[in-house]
Amino acid sequence: MCIIFILQSLYRRIVNVLQRMIDCDDVREGTSAYEGTQEALQYAREGCREGTVYTRSKKGGRGRGAGRS
User: Fold this and answer.
1) Structural domain containing residue 40
2) Most buried residue, 14, 24, 32, 36, by most Cβ within 10 Å?
3) pLDDT score of 31
4) For 30, left (φ over 0), alpha (ψ -120 to 50), or beta?
5) What residues contact 17, with CB distance under 8 A and at least 6 apart?
6) 43 lies in a domain?
């Protein structure tokens, strides 16, 4: 299994858990826990996007891994 796929899957799980915490009011808006959850959610979403770009670039032959066997 490709490491990029594993990382994307992990980031998606983290996004789902954090979003569920916010949606179910496990963390209340205005608290430091809410702010921390929002920040972690943002980082996880960025990780999903970056992994997707890398994977697509690699398939197109232009990614960092292009040309490797």
Assistant:
1) 3-57
2) 14
3) 95
4) left
5) none
6) yes
| Long-range contacts, stretch 9-16, CB < 8 angstroms, 24+ apart | 11/44, 11/45, 11/47, 11/48, 11/51, 12/48, 14/40, 14/44, 14/47, 15/41, 15/44, 15/45, 15/48
Give yes or no for a contact between 26 and 48, defined as CB atoms under 8 angstroms apart: no
Report the domain count for the chain: 1
Q: Mean pLDDT throughout 42-66?
A: 60
What tokens were used for 51?
């992994």
For residues 65 and 45, give the distance between their C-alpha atoms in angstroms, rounded to a whole number. Answer: 22
Residue 49 domain flag: yes
d(Cα 32, Cα 42) in Å, to the nearest integer?
A: 15
The answer to whether the pTM exceeds 0.70 is: no
Question: Quick check: is 66 in a domain?
Answer: no
Residue 7, in any domain of the structure: yes
